[in-house]
Amino acid sequence: TIEVVPLPTATLSSSATDNAVCGDWSGFGSLITAAFEDVTFTASGGDQYTFYLDGLIVQGPGPAAEYTTGAVSTNGDENFSFDVYVDVMNAAGCSATTPTITTTVKRYPEITNATWTNPTTCGGTGQINLNFNTTSVGVGTLSTVPDGAYTISYDGGSFSGVVVTNGEATILDVPAGVYNNLSITVNGCTSQEFPDVVLADPDPPLVNCFNGPNTICEGEQAFLSGFIELGTAPYTVTFEDDNMMFYSISDYQVDANIPLDITETTVFSNFVVTDANGCSASLEVNGECSTIEVTIEVVPLPTATLSSSATDNTVCGAWSGFGSLITAAFEDVT
């Protein structure tokens, strides 16, 4: 009797989604290797397993049905993949070979540098400049980000349609803000550097105080003047009074007097200073100024009257003396 033993049903599966992983290249020339996330290959159908990677035995024969890859030599090839198959043997010594699984290793894109230009005006925009690694250690150009349009992501948002050319990209029209953990995804692989960028508006003006005379006499000219630091002159000053009159003073220079025509006691408030860069600041209570209002009191002129005891403003008198020394003596006038 001759027993015919069926061949094992040899199967092989991989933990890599779509048989692709992302990796980093390192090394020199033909010794470049790709380090990537672990890929576990699982075989079944027998009792003994021999794993082959690119035709070389890397594990077995033995009962272990799983093999996990480490770093793999790329032989200097940027478009790198590797093959794994398994010889499966059953207890009777019959063997079969699994289908080959080809795993593609895609290179992580690398952001090597991030610089930026702040907005020149408040409410304006700046730009972010990114550089990407276009060379591998010791070998020719291996672009991690091929020319094209990409989405640059950051915490809470993204910039779409960013054009990369020769390993460089400029993101235009970026408002002031915080852009943390910048990243780019190429062929399903996301960069790992995650630089942070903060764009800031120009410094706004610092309004220390506005003041004027506490009192003026009726008919006198009133004025206000302000002490302003930072920002960029000239400034525009706006404020209002308690009669709902709005004032806007352009080309204001620090400590200059703002003339005011008022006829009654007036309270001025809501001081806002806008500089040449469009940056604004309001007067707030601070160490230089204890109030955000300025009150100018208009004091009425006295009601001046005068009367005389002389009837019809006329009196009788006697002249004496000589020439320019003549004097007139007359009854008292009160």
Record keyword descriptors for this entry.
mainly beta, 334 residues, 31 strands, 8-stranded mixed sheet, 7-stranded antiparallel sheet
Q: What is the straight-line distance between the termini? A: 164 Å
Ranges where pLDDT stays below 50 over 5 or more residues in a row are none
- Most strands sheet: 8 strands, mixed
Helix/strand-derived class?
A: mainly beta
Task: Provide the helix percentage.
Answer: under 10%
Oligomeric state as shown:
single chain
Average pLDDT level: 86
- Strand tally, please? 31
Kindly estimate the percentage of residues that lie in beta strands according to DSSP.
over 45%
C-alpha geometry = rod-shaped
Radius of gyration: 45 Å
Helix count?
A: 0
Tell me about this structure.
The protein is mainly beta and 334 residues long. It contains no helices and 31 strands. The strands form seven sheets. Strands 2, 3, 5, 6, 8, 9, 10 and 11 form an eight-stranded mixed sheet that branches. The protein has a seven-stranded antiparallel sheet with strand order 12-13-16-15-14-18-19, with no helix packed on it. Strands 22, 24, 25, 27, 28 and 29 form a six-stranded mixed sheet that branches. A hairpin with a 2-residue loop joins strand 18 (183-186) and strand 19. The mean pLDDT is 86.
Write a concise synopsis of the structure shown.
Helices cover 0% and strands 51% of the residues. The chain has 334 residues and is mostly beta strands.
